[in-house]
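Design job #97: recover the sequence.
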């Protein structure tokens, strides 16, 4: 069973193309995290928020990642990170064409 990790936090920017340029190396590094399958990057410049939706192979991998990622974000000056982990219902997700890795 796969697990979704939902993350969001307050951020002053950058957003859009500037965000893509600034965080491309970070994005590449995420590909090498244990149990990582994919990530959708999220941003809302109007609200000053960013984050992502991740898919991990196991709950343990998602928990390990968010622990490391929260510390990394604190180093970027982002002290509070909201996160939730959900198990994926594969049968229903397949009906709606969700990418399951």
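Job complete. Output follows.
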């Amino acid at each position: 069973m796969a697990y979704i990790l939902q993350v969001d936090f307050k951020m002053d920017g950058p957003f859009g193309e500037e965000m893509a340029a600034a965080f491309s190396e970070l994005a590449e590094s995420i590909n090498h995290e244990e149990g990582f399958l994919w990530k959708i990057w999220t941003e809302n410049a109007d609200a000053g928020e960013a984050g992502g939706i991740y898919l991990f192979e196991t709950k343990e991998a998602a928990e390990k990642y968010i622990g490391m990622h929260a510390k990394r974000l604190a180093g970027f000056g982002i002290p509070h990170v909201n996160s939730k982990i959900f198990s994926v219902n594969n049968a229903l997700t397949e009906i709606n064409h969700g990418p399951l890795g």
